[in-house]
Specification:
Diaminopimelate Epimerase, Chain A, domain 1; twelve-stranded mixed beta sheet; 5 helices; about 20% helix; globular; binds 2,6-diaminopimelic acid; Diaminopimelate epimerase; isomerase; DAP_epimerase_DapF; cytoplasm
Length: about 250
């Protein structure tokens, strides 16, 4: 026993081990984090997040993928970290924190966390897909029959293609337009190397891409395997919000 307290949180089924690391005592080695995230040998999670102090913000969020490596920004993880900080009594109603991609604002109420995402300034448009960075890199392709689509194999093929390996890897989103204000998104996640139940930065990228390709207006409702999110944005993508539930599942001692 290391006598470290951990908490398990989830946001639309994207789940995280959360550690209050304000004393910076957590031994953050890759092997240990990978072990804790393992669904058979550990607690089981898509990632692990350290909540740390920062002199200029309410807190700092440090995110690791399930493979134990520090990742780029995680939207659902950000929403869960905000809920965690609220539960720890760090803020009430509104917060400002820092993550690997910069500053984030968020509002919390009992039902949802609304997280302001980074601005998106450049989007690569291709015939069959868009690519952008919403804090993490995202490939977005539109498909029909999303519920029976082979996300794992098709996503893996793209993620491990020579082009994307050379570019540092990517998360891969498959999207179907459901109605005038709703899309369904499924994501193969880099660093988890599997489909997750929901990916916040991926959902954000998918909504922006749906606006560009089909003119769907903000706010866009997003269905994922783990529940529903909403993405609102202005048309130059400088004010993007990811809104949805985030909650504690259990806690324990390591
Ligand atoms: N699940 C995360 C994305 C994690 C990004 C990660 N897979 C990477 O590319 O490093 C989210 O909700 O935005």
């Amino acid at each position: 026993m290391n006598n470290i307290k951990f908490y398990k949180y989830q946001g639309t089924g994207n789940d995280f081990v959360m550690i209050d690391n304000r004393d910076e005592k957590f031994p953050a080695s890759q092997a240990y984090i990978e072990h804790l995230c393992h669904r058979r040998f550990g607690i089981g999670a898509d990632g692990l997040i350290l909540l740390q102090n920062d002199p200029n913000y309410d807190f700092r969020m440090v995110y690791y993928n399930a493979d134990g490596k520090e990742g780029s920004m995680c939207g659902n993880g950000g929403r869960c970290t905000v809920r965690f900080a609220e539960d720890l009594g760090i803020f009430k109603d509104k917060t400002k924190f820092i993550a690997v991609d910069g500053e984030h604002l968020a509002d919390a109420n009992e039902a949802v966390i609304a997280l302001k995402m980074g601005e998106v300034h450049s989007i690569e448009r291709h015939d069959f897909y868009d690519f952008m960075n919403t804090g993490s890199p995202h490939y977005v392709a539109f498909v029909k029959g999303i519920e029976s689509f082979d996300v794992y194999n098709e996503g893996k093929k793209i993620r491990y293609s020579d082009e994307w390996v050379a570019r540092g890897g990517t998360n891969v989103n498959f999207v179907e337009v459901i109605d005038n204000e709703t899309i369904y998104v499924r994501t193969y996640e880099r660093g988890v190397e599997d489909e997750t139940y929901s990916c916040g930065t991926g959902v954000t990228a998918s909504a922006l891409s749906t606006f560009l390709r089909f003119g769907m207006k903000s706010p866009i409702n997003v269905i994922t395997k783990g529940g529903n999110l909403k993405v609102s944005f202005n048309e130059n993508f400088t004010d993007i919000r990811l809104v949805g539930p985030a909650m504690k599942v259990f806690d324990g001692i390591l």
